[in-house]
Amino acid sequence: MPAIRAIGQQLYRTARFTLNDRLDARWNKDPLARSPTGTVEEFRELAAHAAAREFPEADEIERDTGFAIDRRWLDDLALHTQIVKKRSELGYPHGRLLYSVLRQYISANRPDFVSIIETGTARGFSALCMAKALADAGVRGHIVTIDRLPHLVPIYWNCIDDLEGRKTRRDLLAPWAQLCDRITFIQGDTLDQLGKIGARRVNFAYLDAQHTEADVLHEFDLIAPLQERGDIVFFDDVTPEQFPGVAAAVETIETRGDYAMQRVRAGRGFAWALRQ
Predict the structure, then answer these.
(1) Residues 37-66 pLDDT 10s
(2) pTM of the predicted model as reported, rounded to 2 decimal places
(3) 3-state class (DSSP) for residue 118
(4) Which domains does the chain have, with CATH numbers?
(5) Cβ(102)–Cβ(66) under 8 Å?
(6) Computed from CA positions of residues 176, 179, 184, 190, in that sequence, does the dihedral angle turn out positive or negative?
(7) Do the beta carbons of residue 82 and residue 50 sit within 8 Å?
(8) CB count, 10 Å around CB of 232?
(9) Half-sphere CA count of 40, side-chain side, radius 13 A
């Protein structure tokens, strides 16, 4: 019987791995672009316009927290990870907000170690902004980030680096390799992978993957039991006219009373929940 059980377990694992590989496969075949989408000049023009945009709400958060990310560093990172060809106007104030709120959290709580979970890695911009906050604060910490997009499969990323050919995300982020040492990149569906991480505590979470009310609440409900007083969950795209599901989820979380919610509109809506 033990031998039969072992064979059954092996068959189950094989079937599950095969299914996961098939689900991931479509994300390994240039899901963002089939070829370079612009010239160097076009990407740099978009970058200059995005860098020049003003976000007074983000300025205010930086003043209130006392922490502001190095803008030259941010703009350089954004050129490779945020400047893409799309219809909507480009901007990346979330990098500033994440950095400032996380630095304030570290300053206020002085943790020995900061455990961070992110859903929705994309090209890695937000994860690197949070890694920089850890590094600049001189605190030990690690980020686990989850996305369907592959980390080790070369694809086109709809960014300036595509002009050099397909790259893995690891190659795309090679100029920031030291900060990437603080990050574990996981490929897979957020709702499938999030519950498997096994963290004892999550000091800070950034949720920017699934944009339905049910999915945001599910992600949050997996994180909340791992948080203590003062810990934070940060939400992107809290913009009712574009993402009503995210806004509704944030409203639901606020009404529960376990978290105090702060909102800001900087181009689009953001919110962060402080565990009470």
Answers:
(1) 999 999 999 999 999 999 999 999 999 999
(2) 0.91
(3) strand
(4) 30-275 (3.40.50.150)
(5) no
(6) negative
(7) yes
(8) 22
(9) 2
